[in-house]
Amino acid sequence: GVTFKVEAGELVIARILHGGIIDQQGLLHVGDVIKEVNGRDVSQDPRVLLEELQAASGIVVLKILPSYHETIPPRQVFFKCLYDYDPASDTLIPCKEAGLRFETGDILQIVNQDDINWWQVCMYKAKRN
Questions:
Q1: Per-residue pLDDT reduced to its tens digit, 51-101
Q2: Measured distance CA(127)–CA(106) in Å, rounded
Q3: Rounded to an integer, what distance in angstroms lies between the CA atom of residue 109 and that of residue 121?
Q4: How many CB atoms lie within 10 A of CB 42?
Q5: Which of 11, 21, 69, 75 is deepest in the core (most CB within 10 A)?
Q6: Could you write out the DSSP letters of every residue in 64-116?
Q7: What share of the chain is helix, strand, coil (3-state, %, to 5)?
Q8: Where is the chain membrane-spanning (predicted)?
């Protein structure tokens, strides 16, 4: 539900999957810097973060430098699909499991446009005859 990037020698939250557990909790935000997991420095290497999270059992303690970006309420934007799309056949999608299959006539609500290449949406299925 979250992706990271190393920026200026720090591990920064790059994206949070809309509707996932991280998003629902509202404790982490895009731009936050992850410094430590259970007391271990993970600031420059996402592999260390992954190792710590995989080895953890029970409570996970994160040391975070929060981003202080002012949040602007997103506009509600809807699109009507003019063609069918299946992420399983898309060679450019970085994570097929996160892709959303849709059909002509479905309505997509854009819920996150932080990544210029991949938007996050909610879908409203068109009624089929």
A1: 888 888 888 888 888 887 666 666 788 999 999 999 999 998 888 888 899
A2: 8
A3: 5
A4: 22
A5: 11
A6: EE---PPP-PPPPEEEE-SS-B-GGG-SS-S-GGG---B-TT-EEEEEE--SS
A7: 15, 30, 50
A8: none
Cα within 13 Å of Cα(68), Cβ side: 1
Question: What are the φ and ψ backbone dihedral angles of 22, each rounded to 5 degrees?
Answer: -60, -45
* Residues comprising the chain, all counted: 129
CA atoms within 13 A on the CB side of 122: 9
126 vs 79: CA distance, rounded Å = 12
Residue 63, strand partner residues:
36
Taking CA atoms, 83 is separated from 41, 76, 79, 87, 105, in Å, by: 47, 22, 12, 13, 8
